[in-house]
Amino acid sequence: MSLKKLPFTMQQIEKIIEKHPTPFHIYDEKAIRENARRFYKAFSWVPGGFKNYFAVKALPNPAILKILKEEGMGADCSSLPELLLSDMAGIKGEDIVFTSNDTPAAEFIKAKELGAVINLDDITHIPFLEKHAGIPELACLRYNPGPLKEGNKIIGNPEEAKYGFTREQLIEGYRLMKEKGAKRFGLHTMVASNELNPDYFIETAEILFDLVVEISKKLSIKFEFVNLGGGIGIPYKPEQKAVDLEYVSEGIKKAYEKKIRGNSLDPLRIVMECGRVVTGPYGYLVTKAIHTKNTYKNYIGLDACMANLMRPALYGAYHHITNMNNPEGKPDHTYDVTGSLCENNDKFAINREMPETKPGNTIVIHDTGAHGYAMGFNYNGKLRSAELLLTTDGSAKLIRRAETVEDYFSTLKF
Ligand SMILES: *Cc1c(COP(=O)(O)O)cnc(C)c1O
C-alpha cells in the first residue's frame, strides 16, 4: 500500500505521460501554494512581516519562483545564475538575499547592482567586497556558532562547517562595517539541514536573539532582522512527522518577547531561507520500469537514474517509491531500484519492500521537489529530464523541456 499521497491518479498520470515521455519531475502547484500560505500564517505575528527567501538551489525554475513570489516569498541565491534567475522571475532588490561562500568578485558586483541583501560569509570578505563592489548600506553577516550547537548528519558540526564568522569575528565584522559606512544591520545563521526537530529552530532563534542583544549594546547599532537560514526537514519516510511550524513559531515568539521586546530592541523582523520544506514534498519523479533482473538480488531498472535524483546515492537518503500499477499492493517483494549509470551506487532504493513490479510499470519517486532535478548532471552522457507543473486547474504544463543530444554537444568545439 502506498502510504504517501499523490496529487494524480493512474489515469491522469498516464495521460500526461502520453504527451510528455518519462522520466520527468512534476510539481504540484496547488499544494505548493497552500503550504506557503500555511508557513506565512504560522509566522504572521512577526513585527514588520515574516519573509521566507526561497533557496533557489532547491528548485531553480523561474515558473516556480514566480509562484512563490506571488505567495510573498523572496529568493535566496548563492551564484550569479541564481541571481539572474530570480531577477528573471521578477524578484527584485532586497527581496533577494545573496548568501554565498568562497564568492567570486563578479557575483558580489552583480548582487550589489541588483540591490540584493548581501550576506557575508567571512571577515576577509569585508575588504574584498569593499574593493570590488563597495560597502552596501545594509550589512548582514553569517554567524557560525561553532561548538555551541550540535550539528546533524548532512551539514556536520558547525565547528566543522566551512560557513560563517566566529563569534569574535562577528563583533569585529559589524564594527568594521559600521566604520566603513553601513547603516542598517542584519544577522544570519544556518546550522542545520533537513532537520525534523522543531526545537532546533527555536534554539537557533534564541542564539541569534542573544547575539542581537549583545552586539546592539556593544556597538550601538540597531538590527533590522535576523535570518534563521533554511534547513527545515521534511518527512521523506512515511512514518516521519512534518515539523510543526505553529509550534516553532510559538517558541520563537516566546523568545522574542523575552529577549527582544524585553530589551526594547523591537521591532526586529524574522526571516528564513527555506527551500526543502517549501517545495520538497510537492515534487515527484515519474519514471517507468524498463527491466527487472534477478541475480544475487532482485532489481528494478528504471528509465531514470541518479542524474535525475542524486540524494539516495549521495546521502543514502530515503525516497518513497510507489508503483502506480499496483499502488495498494502488498510489499511482498524486495528490490534494489536502479538507474542505468555505470556506477553501482546508482540506486534509488536498496532492499526496498515493494509490490511485485514488472517492466512497463509506472513508478513514482516521492519528495523530489527540492534538491532533486537541481542536483542533476550529465555524467555517462545522461540528459537532464523535463520539468512539469501540475497547475491548479489540473493540467500539466511544461516548465522546462528535456535536454537533447544537441544540448549535450552544444558546448563542444569540434
Ligand atoms: C541550502 C541552503 C538553504 C536551503 O536549505 P533547505 O534545506 O533547502 O531549506 C538556505 N540557505 C543557505 C545558505 C543554504 O546553503
Number of helices: 12
How do the SSEs run, as a string of H and E?
HEHEHEHEHEHEHEHEHEHEEHEEEEEEH
Per CATH, the architecture of the largest domain is Alpha-Beta Barrel
- Strand content of the residues, in percent? 15-25%
> What is the CATH H-level superfamily of the largest domain?
Alanine racemase
- Which CATH C-level class of the largest domain is it? Alpha Beta
Radius of gyration: 23 Å
Q: Can you tell me the CATH topology of the largest domain?
A: TIM Barrel
State the helicity in percent bands: 25-40%
**Main beta sheet:** 9 strands, mixed
Which blocks of ≥5 consecutive residues have pLDDT under 50?
A: none
Outline: globular
Number of domains: 2
End-to-end separation: 52 Å
Describe this structure in words.
By secondary structure, the protein is α/β, with parallel strands linked by helices. It has two domains: 10-26 and 281-409, Lyase, Ornithine Decarboxylase, Chain A, domain 1; 29-277, Alpha-Beta Barrel (TIM Barrel), CATH 3.20.20. Helices cover 30% and strands 22% of the residues. Helix 8 runs parallel beside helix 9 (245-260). 43% of the residues are buried.
List the helices and strands and how they pair.
Elements: H1 10-19, E1 24-28, H2 29-42, E2 51-55, H3 62-70, E3 74-77, H4 80-88, E4 96-99, H5 105-114, E5 117-120, H6 125-132, E6 138-143, H7 167-179, E7 184-189, H8 198-219, E8 223-227, H9 245-260, E9 269-272, H10 276-279, E10 283-294, E11 298-302, H11 311-315, E12 321-323, E13 333-338, E14 347-354, E15 362-365, E16 386-390, E17 396-400, H12 405-409
Parallel strand pairs: 1-16, 2-3, 2-9, 3-4, 4-5, 5-6, 6-7, 7-8, 8-9, 11-13
Antiparallel strand pairs: 1-10, 10-11, 10-15, 12-15, 13-14, 16-17
Helix pairs in contact: 8-9
Bound molecules: pyridoxal-5'-phosphate.
